[in-house]
Design a protein that fits this description.
Layout lengths: L32 E7 L7 H14 L3 E6 L25 H11 L3 E5 H7 L11 E4 L1 H13 L3 E6 L2
Parallel strand pairs: 1-2, 1-5, 2-3, 3-4
Helix pairs in contact: 1-2
């Protein structure tokens, strides 16, 4: 049996070079847009939260950034908490709410499909985080097409 001679990792160690950046830091040109779509369920995998962070980063890089919540994606935009709304039942419980609130406060726009909200998940518009704009299911395709026509960067978020 081989003997392990490497000392155990300890707090404060770096296992990778986290300071090296390989690519230039791209910023938006004036008027550039971005759209991040979400067809994923809150808390089922990391992609919903990771791409909320990406949307915030796009906004900070100067893109006029919008988020589209449709299908199960509307679950990212509802108020949550336990035992009452706003309470954090476990660490990270409010991560979606907090990130969306931060994104909106920094100038981002968030839209949620009314059909998915009511027909699929039984929520009304009052369940949405403040600042999220409910839209018709007929607007879901049109917001994507409008962004495509403006040559926007589009990042689609899906969970199967």
């Amino acid at each position: 049996m081989p003997k392990v001679t490497q000392p155990a990792n300890k707090k404060g160690d770096s296992l990778v070079d986290y300071e090296e950046k390989v690519f230039e830091d791209v910023k938006a040109d004036p008027g550039e847009k971005a759209l991040v779509t979400f067809h994923t369920v809150a808390f089922e995998g990391s992609i919903g939260f990771v791409n909320l962070l990406q949307a915030t980063r796009l906004q900070r890089k100067g893109f006029e950034t919008s988020i589209l919540l449709y299908g199960p994606g509307v679950t990212l935009g509802v108020k949550r908490g336990f035992p009452t709304l706003g309470d954090e039942a476990f660490p990270g419980h409010q991560n979606f709410n907090n990130q969306i609130t931060k994104f909106i406060a920094e100038g981002g726009k968030v839209y949620a499909c009314r059909f998915a909200l009511q027909a699929l998940y039984g929520h009304g518009e009052g369940a949405l985080i403040e600042g999220i704009r409910p839209i018709s299911p007929l607007d879901v395709l049109d917001i994507v097409l409008l962004h495509r026509k403006s040559n926007a960067f589009i990042l689609d978020t899906w969970t199967l």
